[in-house]
Amino acid sequence: MKAVQMTLDEELVKAVDEAARQTGSNRSSFTRRALRHELQRLRIEALERQHREGYTRHPVAMDEFAVWETEQDWGDE
Fold first, then answer.
1. Which of 61, 69, 18 is nearest to 10 (CA)?
2. Closest to 30 in 3D by CA, of 41, 39, 21
3. Which of 13, 38, 39, 76 has the fewest Cβ atoms nearer than 10 Å?
4. CA of 44: how far to CAs of 38, 40, 66, 69, 72, in Å?
5. Alpha carbon 59 to its chain's center
6. With contact defined as beta carbons under 8 Å apart, do 30 and 23 qualify?
7. Contact 20, 27 (CB under 8 A)
8. CA distances (Å), origin 24, targets 7, 10, 50
9. Beta carbons within 8 Å of 27's beta carbon, 6+ residues apart
10. How far apart are the first and last CA of the chain?
11. DSSP letter string, 27-63
């Protein structure tokens, strides 16, 4: 691992320390998990944006999935 120096406001440090204490962790471990979580969220957000843009460029045709209609089983019959 690599040590990284960060500047955080006092309220954020207190909140992180409290959250770390509540989860049985420490400041570094809690911050690593929070950073990984945010990076994953950003990756998902980017993929969702690409997905939306793809469907905007190439919208679904009205009958594109019609061949599957007979295969649907909603379990209510």
1. 18
2. 21
3. 76
4. 10, 6, 29, 30, 29
5. 25
6. yes
7. yes
8. 24, 21, 38
9. 13, 16, 17, 20
10. 58
11. HHHHHHHHHHHHHHHHHHHHHHHHHHHHHHHSPPPTT
Whole-structure pTM value: 0.73
9 neighbors 19 (Cβ within 8 angstroms): no
The C-alpha angle with vertex 23 and arms to 20 and 26, in degrees rounded to 5, equals: 35
As given in the structure block, the two tokens for residue 73 are 């089983």
Encoded tokens for 20 = 């770390």
Q: Which tokens sit at 77?
A: 């019959």
- pLDDT values of the chain reduced to their tens digit, one per residue, 77 residues: 999 999 999 999 999 999 999 999 999 999 999 999 999 999 999 999 999 999 999 999 988 888 888 887 777 76
